[in-house]
Design goal:
It contains 28 helices and 11 strands. The protein has 732 residues and is mainly α. Among the domains are: 316-551, Orthogonal Bundle (Clc chloride channel), CATH 1.10.3080; 568-728, CBS-domain (Roll), CATH 3.10.580.20. The radius of gyration is 31 Å and the shape is elongated.
Length: 732
C-alpha cells in the first residue's frame, strides 16, 4: 500500500524565509491544468468548473482593482482632512478639509478662496483672534502637538500589531516576487494596519510619501483574494503572477498612471512576467484607476493632485539645464538613505514639525507643494511664485502670458524654497527607514521639483533680462512666453526619482501620465537617462536593491553581470574541509536513520543515491516533504516502526522473514533534479539559477554525485567575487 496515494496537508509547501522552486510550481500547475482539461470532457458540470477556473484570474484582477482603488481613495481623503486638522477645523462639518470647507461656503470669493468664516484656525477658535504673536505661537504649538500625536499613534500601531507594515514595502515585494517566502508580510493585519498608519504617518508631516506603501497595500489585496481560489492559494508560482499585477494596480492608483503602473511592475519589481500577466496587470490597473476616478478624492476630476497643463513648447537650448537637473537627480540618488540607525519616530516628527511650520513651503503637505511647483503661472494664480511685475498695456490671452520680471514675492519664494530644499534633503535621509509606513517617491520628487523650479526661474529671468544673448536670440524674443518654470520642476522631480530608483521607461510614462504632456517626453527622457548614468557611476544599486542587500534577502538580480572565470566545482558543497554530503539511499535506510538525518542537519533537502558506495544519483527529496511524509506514515500506516525500511523505488527491496511493514516514499521524490557537471562555468550556473528560478542544483561527474549548489551559495560566491561580505546573505 502507498499511503501517499491520498494527498496529505502541507506537502509541497515551503517554510518561512525560504525560496520556492519555480520549476516544481510550474510543473504542478501544468499537471493540475491537464487534469481539469481531461475531466471537462466527462460532464457538463466539469466543463462549467473548467470555465470558472479559466476565468478565476480575471475575477481576482477585478477584485484587486476595486479594493485597491477604494483604499487609495479613502487614504487620499483621510490624509487631506488630517493634514488640515493640524492647522484648524471646519465649523460647519468637522470632517471637511480646508478646501472642501471653503468651497461649500457661500461667503467665499475667488481672490480669497482660502479664507472663509466656516474654517477657523485653532488660535481663532480658542482665543477669538487670528492675528498677533500669541495666535501664531498657539497655532505653532498645536501644529507640533498634532504631528507628535499622529506619529506616536502610527509607530505604536506598527510596533504592536503589524511590524511588517513599516517602510515602503517595495524591496520586500521585489524579493517575494523573486520567489522568497515571508509569511505575514502580505497578511490581513498588515493590510489593515498599513492602511491606517499610512494615513497617520503622512498626516504627521514627516518627509515621506504614500505612493510606495500603496504598492504594498495593493499586493496585500492581491494576496487576500488569492486565498479564495485554490489555483493561486496552493501554488506559489501562480500567486506571484497575481502579485505582479497587484503591484501595477498599486502604482496606477498612487500616481493615476495605469500604463506607468504596468511598466513599473515589468521594469522594477517583477521577476517572472509572462505575457498573460501583462494583460491581467493592464486590466487590474485599469479597474483600480477607474475606481479611484469614481471616488474623485481631489475634487478635480483627475486621478492625481498635481495634474498640470503647459501652453509653451520647449526649445533645444533648454536641454542643457534639463540634463543638469538629471545630474542633480543622479547625485541625490547616491545619498545613503535609510542607512542611519532608526531614530525614535516621535523625535524626528517633533523636529520636522518645529522646523517645517515657519516656512509655508514645508508646512503644507508634500503633494500640495509639488502641485504648486509644477503649476504654470496663469493670470488667476495667487501663489507667491507667480508674483511677477505685469506690464500695464498687456492684453494677451490668459494662457499666453509673456515672460515678465520677477516681483518681490518671487524673490521671497526663492529663498524660502532654498531653505525648504536643504530641509527636505536632510529630513528625508533620516525619515526613510524608520519603523512606520514611508514611501520615497514623493519626497524625492519634492527635492527635484524645488531644485527644478529654482533653476526654471533663474533661466526665465536670465532670458528676460538678456534676450540678446546668443543662446536666447533665436527662440526668445522680447514679449514672448519662452520659459515655463513649472516644466523645470517636473523634469527635476523625474530626475531625482530616477536617480533614487534607477527607473527609466516606467518613470517617463508615469510623469507624462501625471501631467498629460506628451510634448515633454524628450526633456523627461533626457533627465531620466542622465540621472541613471550619474547614479550608476557611483554604484549600480538603486535604493530598493540597497535595502534588499542590507536585509540579507536572497535576491538574484537579473541585471547583475557575472564575468568571473570560476567553475561549479569551486562553489559546490561540501568543500574539502567539510564532512561528506548528507544523502539517502534508494532502499537501505530505516525510518529511524531518516529521522536522525533530519534531526541532525538543517539542510532543505537530500539527494537520493543508489548506494553510498556508488553514489549514483536517483533524485532529490525536500526536507519538509520528507518530514511530513514520515510523520503522517507513523500516524496513518499500520505497523510502521523505527526499524521499518524506507524505499524510493517502484517495488520494495527483498526483505528478511517477518519484517515490519516498509515505507514507500517514491511519490515525494523528484526524479528529475537539475544537474550540472563539476566543470560547468559559474557564469552558466548563475544564468540557470536566474532564468529557471532554481532553489538548488546537484553537481555530478559521469552520473556520480559530487556535491550541491544552492541559491544561497551562488549569492555568497557573487558577493565574494565583488569583494563584499558573503555572510551578509542570511536566508536560504
Amino acid at each position: 500500500m502507498d499511503f501517499l496515494d491520498e494527498p496529505f496537508p502541507d506537502v509541497g509547501t515551503y517554510e518561512d524565509f525560504h525560496t520556492i522552486d519555480w520549476l516544481r510550481e510550474k510543473s504542478r500547475d501544468t499537471d493540475r491544468h491537464r487534469k481539469i482539461t481531461s475531466k471537462s470532457k466527462e460532464s457538463m458540470w466539469e466543463l462549467i468548473k473548467s470555465l470558472l477556473d479559466a476565468w478565476s484570474g480575471w475575477v481576482v484582477m477585478l477584485l484587486i482593482g476595486l479594493l485597491s482603488g477604494t483604499l487609495a481613495g479613502v487614504i487620499d481623503l483621510a490624509v487631506d482632512w488630517m493634514t488640515d486638522l493640524k492647522e484648524g477645523v471646519c465649523l460647519s462639518a468637522f470632517w471637511y478639509s480646508h478646501e472642501q470647507c471653503c468651497w461649500t461656503s457661500n461667503q467665499t470669493t475667488f481672490d480669497d478662496r482660502d479664507k472663509c468664516p466656516e474654517w477657523q484656525k485653532w488660535a481663532e477658535l480658542m482665543t477669538g483672534t487670528s492675528e498677533g504673536a500669541g495666535a501664531y505661537l498657539l497655532n505653532y504649538l498645536l501644529y507640533v502637538l498634532w504631528a507628535l500625536l499622529f506619529s506616536f499613534l502610527a509607530v505604536s500601531l506598527v510596533r504592536v500589531f503589524a511590524p511588517y507594515a513599516c517602510g515602503s514595502g517595495i524591496p520586500e515585494i521585489k524579493t517575494i516576487l523573486s520567489g522568497f517566502i515571508i509569511r505575514g508580510y502580505l497578511g490581513k493585519w498588515t493590510l489593515l494596519i498599513k492602511t491606517v498608519t499610512l494615513v497617520l504617518a503622512v498626516s504627521s508631516g514627516l518627509s515621506l510619501g504614500k505612493e510606495g506603501p500603496l504598492v504594498h497595500v495593493a499586493c496585500c489585496c492581491g494576496n487576500l483574494f488569492c486565498s479564495l481560489f485554490s489555483k493561486y492559494s496552493k501554488n506559489e508560482g501562480k500567486r506571484r503572477e497575481v502579485l505582479s499585477a497587484a503591484a501595477a494596480a498599486g502604482v496606477s492608483v498612487a500616481f493615476g498612471a495605469p500604463i506607468g503602473g504596468v511598466l513599473f511592475s515589468l521594469e522594477e519589481v517583477s521577476y517572472y512576467f509572462p505575457l498573460k500577466t501583462l494583460w491581467r496587470s493592464f486590466f487590474a490597473a485599469l479597474v483600480a484607476a477607474f475606481t479611484l476616478r469614481s471616488i474623485n478624492p481631489f475634487g478635480n476630476s483627475r486621478l492625481v493632485l498635481f495634474y498640470v497643463e503647459y501652453h509653451t513648447p520647449w526649445y533645444m537650448a533648454e536641454l542643457v539645464p534639463f540634463i543638469l537637473l538629471g545630474v542633480f537627480g543622479g547625485l541625490w540618488g547616491t545619498t545613503r538613505l535609510g542607512r542611519y540607525p532608526v531614530l525614535e519616530v516621535v523625535g524626528v516628527a517633533g523636529v520636522t514639525a518645529l522646523l517645517a511650520f515657519p516656512n509655508p513651503y514645508t508646512r503644507r503637505s508634500t503633494s500640495e507643494l509639488i502641485s504648486e511647483l509644477f503649476n504654470d503661472c496663469g493670470a488667476l494664480e495667487s501663489s507667491q511664485l507667480c508674483d511677477y511685475v505685469n506690464s500695464p498695456n498687456m492684453s494677451r490671452p490668459l494662457d499666453d502670458i509673456p515672460d515678465r520680471p520677477a516681483g518681490p514675492g518671487v524673490y521671497t519664494a526663492l529663498w524660502q524654497l532654498a531653505l525648504a530644499l536643504v530641509f527636505k534633503v536632510v529630513v528625508t535621509v533620516f525619515t526613510f527607514g524608520m519603523k512606520i509606513p514611508s514611501g520615497l517617491f514623493i519626497p524625492s520628487m519634492a527635492v527635484g521639483a524645488i531644485a527644478g523650479r529654482m533653476v526654471g526661474i533663474a533661466v526665465e529671468q536670465t532670458a528676460y533680462h538678456h534676450h540678446d544673448w546668443i543662446i536666447f536670440r533665436n527662440w526668445c524674443r522680447p514679449g514672448a512666453d519662452c520659459v515655463t518654470p513649472g516644466l523645470y520642476a517636473m523634469v527635476g522631480a523625474a530626475a531625482c526619482l530616477g536617480g533614487v530608483t534607477r527607473m527609466t521607461v516606467s518613470l517617463v510614462v508615469i510623469m507624462f501620465e501625471l501631467t498629460g504632456g506628451l510634448e515633454y517626453i524628450v526633456p523627461l527622457m533626457a533627465a531620466a537617462v542622465t540621472s541613471k548614468w550619474v547614479a550608476d557611476a557611483f554604484g549600480k544599486e538603486g535604493i530598493y536593491e540597497s535595502h534588499i542587500q542590507l536585509n540579507g534577502y536572497p535576491y538574484l538580480d537579473v541585471r547583475d553581470e557575472f564575468s568571473h572565470r570560476t567553475l561549479a566545482a569551486d562553489v559546490m558543497r561540501p568543500r574539502r574541509s567539510e564532512p561528506p554530503l548528507a544523502v539517502l539511499t534508494q532502499d537501505a535506510d530505516s525510518v529511524e536513520e531518516v529521522e536522525a538525518l533530519i534531526k541532525g542537519t538543517d539542510y532543505n533537502g537530500f539527494p537520493v543515491v543508489v548506494s553510498r558506495e556508488s553514489e549514483r544519483l536517483i533524485g532529490f527529496v525536500g526536507r519538509r516533504d520528507l518530514t511530513l511524509a514520515v510523520k503522517t506514515a507513523r500516524q496513518k500506516q499500520e505497523g510502521v516502526v523505527s526499524s521499518s525500511l524506507v524505499f524510493f523505488t517502484e517495488d520494495p527491496p527483498p526483505l528478511p522473514d517477518d519484517p515490519p511493514p516498509p515505507l514507500k516514499l517514491r511519490r515525494i521524490l523528484n526524479l528529475s533534479p537539475f544537474t550540472v557537471t563539476d566543470h560547468t562555468p559559474m557564469e552558466t550556473v548563475v544564468d540557470i539559477f536566474r532564468k529557471l528560478g532554481l532553489r538548488q542544483c546537484l553537481v555530478t561527474r559521469s552520473g556520480r554525485l559530487l556535491g550541491i549548489i544552492t541559491k544561497k551559495d551562488v549569492l555568497r560566491h557573487m558577493a565574494q567575487m565583488m569583494d563584499q561580505d558573503p555572510e551578509s546573505i542570511m536566508f536560504n
